[in-house]
Amino acid sequence: MGLSSVLSQQCSLEEAIQETKIPGLSVITSGPIPPNPAEMVASKRMSSVIAELRERFDIVLIDSPPTLAVTDAQLLSTRCDGVILVLDHGKVKREIALKAKEGLDKVGAKILGVVINNVKRRKSEGYYYYYYGDKNN
Questions:
Q1: Using CA atoms, how far apart are residues 130 and 86, in angstroms rounded to an integer?
Q2: How far is residue 77's CA from residue 84's CA, in Å, rounded to a whole number?
Q3: Beta bridge partners of 84
Q4: Burial profile 32-66: b = 16 or more Cβ within 10 angstroms, e = fewer
Q5: Average pLDDT taken over every residue of the chain
Q6: Which of 76, 55, 52 has the alpha carbon at shortest distance from 65?
Q7: pLDDT score of 131 more than 70
Q8: What pTM did the predictor assign?
Q9: What is d(CA 102, CA 79) in angstroms, rounded to the nearest whole number?
Q10: Share above pLDDT 90 across residues of the chain, in percent, rounded to a whole number
Q11: Residue 4: exposure state from Cβ atoms within 10 A (0-12, 13-18, ≥19)
């Protein structure tokens, strides 16, 4: 059971919410892959599920498929307060990242920031490494 089960009314939202070992953290898995995921994400039912989750939880995070792979991420971004792009260092080329950003800009998504995964650090660097890049890129 997961989000697709809730959206297709195969289970209730309550049944799909799973408690974790971490106090205060609950998750809803994606559920079985439906034949029409983009339609489900764009549905009124999805809007009502998000609204209900906002009432029940302090923070709602939605992990979506890659922005350029399918339309789901762009559709979801229009229903969220903000978007955080996650990029794999050394695998995602700058042009692709900019194309993903442009797609989100087109639908009016509010990009809050970027997380870059798998950055190789030298031993001489400290435990924490912060990069403050150009705001426009």
A1: 16
A2: 10
A3: 113
A4: eebeebeebbbeeebeebeeebeeeeeeeebebee
A5: 87
A6: 76
A7: no
A8: 0.75
A9: 17
A10: 57
A11: buried
